[in-house]
Amino acid sequence: xxxxxxxxxxxxxxxxxxxxxxxxxxxxxxxxxxxxxxxxxxxxxxxxxxxxxxxxxxxxxxxxxxxxxxxxxxxxxxxxxxxxxxxxxxxxxxxxxxxxxxxxxxxxxxxxxxxxxxxxxxxxxxxxxxxxxxxxxxxxxxxxxxxxxxxxxxxxxxxxxxxxxxxxxxxxxxxxxxxxxxxxxxxxxxxxxxxxxxxxxxxxxxxxxxxxxxxxxxxxxxxxxxxxxxxxxxxxxxxxxxxxxxxxxxxxxxxxxxxxxxxxxxxxxxxxxxxxxxxxxxxxxxxxxxxxxxxxxxxxxxxxxxxxxxxxxxxxxxxxxxxx
Length: 324
What we know:
It contains twelve helices and nine strands. By secondary structure, it is α/β, with parallel strands linked by helices.
């Protein structure tokens, strides 16, 4: 069996990185794939670079479009995709090993999961690299099939990133799995919808993705509008959880809990105390969510919240950020 993969790369202002991204795909030992580069109206040399690669390789499809954001670019790629499985990769990231697609094909031939979750390395400018997960081995046979969702829950694997998931294209046809255009943090509710509809999962422990850490300070880039958008996405996830059956709800509630904790941290980045308090008021009713995550950072937030409340927890986080 040779699965065809559709690799979708949104491209915008990544001139410095896009060649490494594309080359890491073209160097794959497995050849049954199409590479869809979606130029999202990039104002640099990225459009030209994409076209140059496409002229030399018939596996590459380039789409040029007006700027609409990463969500819109991914949606365009999904429409163009013809493979059995869809793989996302951001234009400033890259694959670490040439055997990646070959390994995916082996696992899909063996298991045929709806979603394969991938480990990755965070890659820093100073050359340091850190594995995101440390589970020691791939998902074992005993956990495959219907039991796989329990494995994903117990190991706290489900995160919002599109690029650490390989997804059966049938899920996109059967369900609403397009990204919401025009918002930030669009992957939060999208990943919740994937978890709502997926029935079987797989997990690969070997890190195949280099996730480049480009932002020196998230706090400086955070604005009130962005935090409000993140809050609204949390509310979208709340509705998705309500739709889920008992099996998928266990995974979604854990994911919901983690995203709620992330929201608290982002609220703390805001400089205005009035803005911090206003958003805390909007989300206070959800504070019990913190009990559902096994993530150590969320557990610490839960303990702080029990003592200081949501407002106090955010103010402590804000002080810690200020002291940095």
